[in-house]
Write the structure tokens for this entry.
Amino acid sequence: MDAQSRGRAENIDPADQWVLNPNTGEYELRLGNSAPQSPVPGPRASRRGRPADPGAEHGRGGAAVREAPERGAEVPQPRRRRGAEPEPPPGRRNRRPVKKKSKAKKVVAWTGGGLALVLVATGSAGYLYLKHLEGNVSATDVGSAAKQGFSKDDAFNILIIGTDKRTGAGNEGYGDKNSVGHADTNILLHVAKDRTNATALSIPRDMIVDVPDCETIQPDGSTKIIPGSRQVRFNTSLGQEGRDAGCTMRTVKAVTGITPDHFMMVDFNAVKTLTSAVGGVKVCLKHPVNDKDSHLQLPAGESKIEGEQALAFVRTRHAWGNQGDLDRIKVQQQFMGSLMRDMSSSDTLTNPRKLLDLAEAATKALTVDQGIKSVSTLKDIALEMKKVPPKNITFMTVPVKDNPADGVIHKTVIVNPDLGPPVFDAINNDVSFTDVKKKEKAAKDAQAARLKGTRSAPSDVRVRIMNGGAVAGSAQETLNWMQTEKSILKSENAGNAPAELSKTTLEYAPDQAPQARELAALMGLPGSALKPGKSVENAQGLPAMSLTLGKDFKGAGVSLTAPAKAPDVSDKSTADKVECAS
């Protein structure tokens, strides 16, 4: 019997079974009359001999106050921790400073378009309840497109997909009711390795891209290769011709060079159920809206929306800017920021009833890859996200420009070839788009350390080049570049390396350090590529360094050094700022 059904059998609201442990800051599940997992102070009335606060039933903490025991009945007292001070007698004021209680584990929920993302941290929910929630989550096997697990020690990329599938009551009125479920709203969420920052990069659905060939897993376990398409809208990377979310992940990698580790997908219903679960989301409008297509009616100024109205807010295009998809993306980003602020400041964090409702709604809304289908893994993702300060969570859109193939009437966009690649490189190299002083200083210090000391002249550098996972022909291309462009004449092509490497490396003997620094500076190699070791003999029998081109190699003369600062991008915002849709 799970926690909820047991609570109902004993005529107890399941919310009353969740107890906030002030020592850990987590809610713990108490079943029946079992003791809490760790000491929990009793209600204020039992400590001070006064009637319980009538507002406690639905206000502070959200748990209903149980009836007081009959006169003469023994009142169980909370067990005291070893070494803890005894509780003061009734009526006596405790003069010692009271430590501020820790907050419950935060629930992080992001939504936009068809809903962007929801991550649920349920705290110490108990095995049975976690298994119940796990049964709510749908999972899709996308094969090698997604990682097999989640690491709490690395940076991670999650592709959030909001589909335009019209399933659910009342959703057939939005657009094409026969849609197979295209990638209508797309956000690539990058969370930095040190958790100081995160970037939510929106990908326009009407951006023209090349969708690559895609291997999909069929219901019978067999695989099917779905041919790619050239110069089509990004949203066709899902649903069209039977493509799954793995095809959308592969398309993102082909367009941006950024590899999504996992995906989370939701449909229209998620916006309605989640906004209702948290009691509504605050939004701000610069002008009143009365959109006959989405049926959205809101006054200027601040409003609180949920359910059908929230879905209309994130779906409408005609009410914003030039009535295009790019302006709708901006409004969706503002909506996500508002939701995050509401979640961190409202009574949701201390209200077990709301936490239960949100956990149920969130898990039922999600479809994820096999690598993160367990609720405990989703909880881990949420707790890692919780570490990122809202002021360092950047919302931005892929830099684009009008598609010249459209002619006079602009219907689609393409990646801006000048502004797009620097944004993609910054995300790929874990560089923040907000002012994170610690990261900027570390990047500058690393660059200074790499270039510090004596350097050799290019003509003195001796190096053997091997291909260890780069594109075929990269070793010869690099040799030609070194000799013709950089005057590194004592270089030679040594063919393929014994094994493939994910990262380019330069191994050198201690006395070759000046040569290594010179070559690293000319090639734009990061400090992590330098590998002190031993030298090898070149064709002339002289000691030389070994340069192995890894899978990260981008081409001869293309720097591998992470930029110290992200490029300036227009129309970006952060999660801590209040903005009004216009």
